[in-house]
Amino acid sequence: MASITIRNLDDNIKQRLRVRAAVNGRSMEEEAREILRRVMGERAPTLNLAEAISARLTPGMRADLELAPREAIREPSDLA
Predict the structure, then answer these.
(1) Tens of pLDDT along the chain (80 residues)?
(2) Which of 15, 46, 54, 70 has the fewest Cβ atoms within 10 angstroms?
């Protein structure tokens, strides 16, 4: 993996990156990598299927569904 150093970064941009990273629960370095991945068109590695599905759904797309009431278990058939 390659490394880069960004010099003369505006203080305002650094502060916004710090806040954005905190909101997303990442380090500033990981947040910068994520921004570069998104801008350069590379998909971020998916941690697991549940997170990938959740990331694609907006809160308005989710619904709480009521489960049907459970019925009593039937007696097994007499095959004798």
Answers:
(1) 789 999 999 999 999 999 999 999 999 999 999 999 888 886 666 678 887 777 777 767 667 778 888 888 888 888 87
(2) 70
